[in-house]
Amino acid sequence: MLATFALCIALATAAPASTSTNSAPPPYATDTPISLDLNAPIYIAPINTDAGPQPIRGGLGADIIAQNNANLAKQNPDSLAPPTTDEGNVGNPKWPFSLSHNRLLTGGWVRQQNTQVFPIGEKMASVDMRLEKGAIRELHWHTVAEWAYVLKGTTQVTAVDTDGRNFRANANAGDLWYFPAGVPHSLQGVGDEGTEFLLVFPDGTFSAEDTLMLTSWLSHTPVEALSKNFGLPPEAFSRVPSHELFIFPSEEPTADAPPEDPYGQTPSPYMYALSKANATRAPGGSFKVADTSVFPISQKIAVGEFTIQPGAMRELHWHPLEDEWGYIISGQARITIFASSSTAGTFDFQAGDIAYIPAALGHYVENIGNETLKYLEVFNSAKFEDVSLRQWLATTPPELVKAHLGWNDSTIAQLGKTKQVIVAPYTP
């Protein structure tokens, strides 16, 4: 009997037998597996169709019995009733351009986003500008670089570099331009509908009111100095405006080639036709990237343009060095941001919204609507860079992944070692 008891003790204390490399290691006794309960948005519908969502998810929460901005709640259901996976506070990463104060002028308008209204956006500020047919954004320059994406219509851009070489081109919807700091330029609406475009500046404190403009400078310079500088009589300046024009109406340009210049044209174009670039196809969508590899002069801004089909998503990833300034062009997006071991937040975005994600924070962008999601990822960088969670795990020694997640070799093999970028909905 003692021998039998001793044998039982020996078996109980012996090291466990080695397991096959194809079997998942048992979970640690102190681990509690994650819940497999789904956390879909509690509300996806057009505005004004009903009373809207309530702050209830499963058995948590309760209905609102006092005042409520129902339309705002409909646009932000994941803030009203967060997924159970959310925890802590990642701050507010959303700014709708609709909340920006609009400056109305003859021939167009301008509204902006900077740290004054959106404190999280420390690295980049932006402007949404509209020019009617022929309207001019007056000759000006900035102390920081200017990057642009044409949302609709056509914009004629002109510029002159430090060697006196000029540039003139038409940028259509989906095209880009970039002017380094200090390069003088102008913008003008072309075609019957004119143009609307985004401007992004690599400084979160930038304000459109700080622009250096031609008419403002001349109106603040003594006439005798102007006369000496231009070699013209003082009377030549009798019609110079007494203050900045900023945006003003004019005739539509009849040419798109630069005027004759003894120094020639700029050797590196200030415009890039992203609209004509080939998209890279991926499961669930497509994408284009424009950085210095294809647009050499754009030293401070890189961009990815993403098209994601309903139900698909931009894979879980992060950008190691630079903040992401995102803009929703069309569709509805859901983004969860992972900030640290106990901090994550989920947010909803619609067309015209800005999403700002600080560097190195994990996130995904999911199309939760029934139409194509199109959006931009913009970075204060010469290169577009990201790290794919899926690729990282697929190229990490399998035994490490098994120890963390309890997966087996068959599961790991399904990940694939190439970056997915966009992933389609899972189908068994």
Number of separate structural domains: 2
Largest sheet entry: 11 strands, antiparallel
CATH-defined architecture of the largest domain: Sandwich
Question: What is the CATH T-level topology of the largest domain?
Answer: Jelly Rolls
Question: Can you tell me the CATH superfamily of the largest domain?
Answer: Jelly Rolls
How large, in whole angstroms, is the Cα Rg?
A: 28 Å
Question: What is the arithmetic mean of pLDDT?
Answer: 92
List its traits.
mainly beta; 26 strands; 34% strand; Jelly Rolls; globular; 428 residues; eleven-stranded antiparallel β-sheet; disordered N terminus; 2 domains
Structural write-up:
- There is one protein chain.
- The chain is mainly beta and 428 residues long.
- It folds into 2 domains: 99-272, Jelly Rolls (Sandwich); 277-423, Jelly Rolls.
- Helices cover 13% and strands 34% of the residues.
- The protein has 8 helices and 26 strands.
- The strands form 4 sheets. Strands 4, 5, 6, 7, 8, 9, 10, 11, 12, 13 and 14 form an 11-stranded antiparallel β-sheet that branches.
- Strand 15 and strand 16 (285-290) form a beta hairpin.
- The protein is globular and about 85 Å long.
- The two termini are 54 Å apart.
- The model is unreliable at 1-21 (pLDDT under 50).
